[in-house]
Amino acid sequence: MRAKSQSHKVTKSQVTRKKVAKRKVTSQKLQGRRTGGREKRKLPQLKFDKKGLIPAVIQDYNTGEVLMVAYMNKDSLKITLKEKRTCFYSRSRKVLWRKGETSGNIQKVKSIWYDCDKDTLLIKVEQIGSACHTGNRSCFYRKI
Fold it and tell me: What is the pTM of this model?
């Protein structure tokens, strides 16, 4: 006769590990990789505007603080995915720019998400230094 199996309690750390693993798979899917990194896939059909741009909200991955908003085109998104550092498109200068290339205030990409309409990106980063060109940690330092 078999012994009764004990009920398995799921610990908080096990749940956290499962959530982290699920996020990693989701991030890998957006980055065009199958789990294990063996095969590349196309990016999702994101909706870029008529100028070929998509807004990107940059958020601190630890605190959830919104650091800045910038625009990306397909090339800057591909560079961001490849280098794991943010690269944007400057609407005024009409060139690609890597965050921190002159200031040293880089953003290491932890994950990239897109919204339900596929027309906005949320990029979670590890911010090194300030995110704002004014020297503030966030561009959102003023309150109405």
Answer: 0.72
Q: What is the DSSP string of the chain?
A: -PPPPPPPPPPHHHHHHHHHHHHHHHHHHHTTB-TTS-SB-PPP-----TTS-EEEEEEETTT--EEEEEEE-HHHHHHHHHHSB-EEEETTTTEEEETTTTT---EEEEEEEE-TTS--EEEEEEE-S-SSTTS-SSS-----
Residue type, 3: A
pLDDT in tens, 30-67: 554 444 444 465 778 999 999 999 999 999 999 999 99
Nearest to 86 by CA among 95, 74, 76: 76
131 and 138 Cβ atoms separated by less than 8 Å: yes
Cα dihedral 100/105/108/114 (nearest 10): -70
